[in-house]
Amino acid sequence: MLFREFQLNKCAKIKRIEVSVARLYAQILIFRKKEMLVNISYNRPAISEKINLEVGKPFTLFERVKLKGSGSPKLHITSTSIDIHNLLILDNNANICNVEMRGNGIIVMFRSILETYALVIPYYKLNLYKGKAEEYSIYKDHHFIKVKADKPGIHKFFQKIIDYKNDNAPTQIEDL
Question: What is the pTM (predicted TM-score) of this model?
Answer without folding.
Answer: 0.77
